[in-house]
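Hi R.,

Here's the input for the iron/sulfur cluster complex you asked about:
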Amino acid sequence: MLSSSDQQALLAWYDLQKRALPWRESDDPWAILLSEVVLQQTQVSRGEMLWQRMMDRFPTVAAMAAAPVDDVLKAWEGAGYYSRARRLHALAQTVMAPSSEGGHDGIVPETYDALLALPGIGPYTAAAVASIAFEQPVACVDGNIRRVMARLTAQRDPSTKEVQAWADASIQRERPGDWNQALMELGATVCTAKKVGCERCSLRHVCAGHGTPEAYPAPRASKVKAVVWTAIVEVACDGLPLLHQRPKGGLFGGLWGPTYLDGEHPLVDGQLQKGVVHHSLSHRAITVHVRSQESTKSMGTNPVEVALSVLDHKILRAVFGDNFFSDS
Ligand code: SF4
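And here is the predicted structure with iron/sulfur cluster in place:
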């Protein structure tokens, strides 16, 4: 737990040193909620671009609720974790629904519990939005805060419950939104995983891990699984690929793409080998053997009109060349 003067020192540092991020200029709950959803598992530099694109396309919760989910997926294209885009659309529709039907009459709810009940919102996002948009004194826990807590208290493997209890006890009640952001900012820019900037840290005099910061927390074992697929890209008579929309519940659900087969399949008559594509997701290292084959169908799918994953962009470039998307 941090003292009041430690809290003031960190907030003073945050006021001077925080990064200029566009959502920090806004007090619109929708803009803040969108930023928190965008930043889940996305780096800040890419998150800024995606947030701006989503705000331009859906400046209000009503605008997103009124749009087809395919438009939300198209705007989200290239960002990965497409289930987030689908759940964001469901969230917008829940917010816009009348309260008599379990909705919120078009107003983003302000309590932690009401936010947590929305589609796609977990404990971190509910706490972030409640504190940043509505100044509710609820503590966030994310990877940055876990690392800061582990080092301040010199713990190798604090559990989620222990980190949450520390964050709850440490919350600054007058500026809870800035407080949560200050702790996360410290973890993102000073108390980083490597090249730790202890000499710039306003909490170093109370930090038990100061001196050996990289000992805390202990690294977690990688859970990345190697997978191999074969992609068959059928090409219609108009020169465009035949793409289909993937089932909602699976990988890249709701996006469009060619057929994948598990494993590496032998080349059969009528197919051309188009190379091998590699792609990384958070828990998968994917290798795709890419094949093309002609189809008797007259028309394919224009890829600029549907939402595609980054992996399928790579696969289609392997078949049609690097300029395929600019020429389509
Ligand atoms: S003193 Fe170093 S290890 Fe401790 S919180 Fe600050 S940056 Fe992290």
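One thing worth noting: Strands lie at 225-235, 244-245, 256-257, 259-262, 271-280, 284-294.

Cheers,
M.
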